[in-house]
Amino acid sequence: MFFGIEASDVTHMSAWLLFGLLFLSPFLQEDFGVILAAAASLAGAAPAPFLIGAILTGLVASDAWKYWMGRLARRYDWAHRFAEKPGVSVAGDLIRREFLQTMLTARFVPGTRIPTYIAAGFFKADYLKYILTLMFTASLYIAVVFTLFHSVGAVAGEEAIVWLPAIAIGILVSYIIFRWLNHRRKNEGVMTPLSKELDHPMPDMPGFEGNPLETDDDDDTAAKGGG
Description:
This protein is an all-alpha fold. The protein is built from ten helices and no strands. The protein is globular, with a radius of gyration of 20 Å.
């Protein structure tokens, strides 16, 4: 049994219910969604291409909108708080210097994704390039997890269907708890591995107070006012 679900129960789910579950899971927690898809594949719940398609679609959809939070933060006061989060300016520096490497790192390091994806929008990275990179990094991540599950399952046998997902979830939860406790101890608030000490005001911005006031007429101009 895994989170109250027997492997046999997963196997008998309708295809669309399973697809919907995997598609929506990254909106709650991306790593959990990938682990769930890999576990379903190991249990033989559906063909691997079907499961990979479902989780890949969910991963890209769950991250596609985060770009626009960064983009809107240049214009609207209500969205500006997303760019104020610790780590966004640091991720922005990395995005501008090494876009692919930064996006790849964010995919494999929980806690860096949201600041990185918001920074991609704030610093106006090409959206098509952003989406294609999301697809590439998500595909690579899925391939690694699926390969790991099936490789270990081939050695450990049917028992791996139960304990392998449990171990993977346990590691993920332990990491999240560690990050949360570490940041509580340092009174840093937002949970991100990106160094808070390197944060700085965004380029073309008067600071984090007030509305950036970037206009629709000239999207590439600097902010004209603040506080």
